[in-house]
């Protein structure tokens, strides 16, 4: 058999990322192909709360011949319950039984909790999870339920090596602000993605951002619900003195007139201080109606803010507009929509257009066709 360097084998097998049947066959070619194939196959483990999956997982982990912990890097733990839809008792017991036997998966660096009620887990199970995955780099909370903000942030801070945090649809049973720093030394989180924050948890989030502010480099704020009076990041020394902030992504998914949509964007951008000298990219994501493409309004405050000295180092201001084309609406074509959006943005953000840093990304959701995405320089 002809000898191939390991990097060539890795490149060949990486082309089969989603073709697991072919990957299994490639693992049988030779011992040199086996490690690379296993690395791709077992890169993501999705745990389901069914008796078959739990039995298979326990059987694999308990086998003396298993090599799964060596290759596993991304773990997704999927529950089936929130406070509004509790998990059946027998499933919950099986779920905890599995979670207490994941201690061999210490090579995982990306962990996702989905549809999980943290407070329903026993203290022993919580401690076991934190002890096993203490050194993960990425944590994602999707449809995650917790008792309070203090409990959730304390849990997050136990992952001492955490650098990326994503929150999508977190539900708190007892609304309230965070009561002081969860621990003495926070993890050096560099990227935070916050999706669908409810108004009563905004103050707790701001307190958490203040606490980890000095290490933050990338910030994403997106969702349907906002408390405008609580969104401003300005006035907090922990955030104002952050010299490492590089990008801000702000998204508002409310289908309402433009002025209220732009209001949260203005509040967040107003918190960008003169010390944010590394800020080079801003992304503004809006969901609109098709009729609003050529009638953008309310951007004067945003344009005035972007003329300030703290935004002088910007290299890109990307505006992402998305709308749903309903049945019966005359189709003027994607090109016409792109042209209207480009002309509207030139009038709304003239300062960015003059500097050549304005970029448009238009997403059109069609009824009988896939999503059409058009990206261009304005």
Number of strands: 14
* Helix fraction by DSSP (H/I, runs of at least 4): 25-40%
The residue ranges in which pLDDT falls below 50 over 5 or more consecutive positions are: 255-259
Number of helices: 14
Largest sheet descriptor: 12 strands, mixed
Order of adjacent strands in the largest pleated sheet: 1-2-3-4-6-8-9-10-11-12-13-14
Spatial separation of the terminal alpha carbons: 54 Å
Give the radius of gyration. Answer: 24 Å
Query: How many separate structural domains?
Result: 3
- Give the class from helix and strand content and strand pairing: alpha/beta
**Assembly level:** single chain
Topology order in helix (H) and strand (E) letters: HHHEHHEHEHEEHEEEHEHEHEHEHHEE
From the spread of the alpha carbons, the general shape counts as globular
Tell me, rounded to a whole number, the average pLDDT. 75
The portion of residues forming beta strands comes to: 15-25%
Tell me what you see in this structure.
- The chain is of the alpha/beta class and about 375 residues long.
- It has three domains: about 1-40; about 45-190, Alpha-Beta Horseshoe (Leucine-rich repeat, LRR (right-handed beta-alpha superhelix)); about 215-378, no CATH class.
- Helices cover about 35% and strands about 20% of the residues.
- The chain has helices at about 5-15, 20-25, 35-40, 50-60, 70, 90-100, 125-130, 150-155, 200-210, 235-240, 260-270, 300-305, 335-350, 350-355; strands at about 45, 75-80, 110-115, 140, 145, 165-170, 170, 190-195, 220-225, 245-250, 280-285, 315-325, 360-365, 370-375.
- Helix 4 runs parallel beside helix 6 (about 90-100) and helix 11 packs parallel to helix 12.
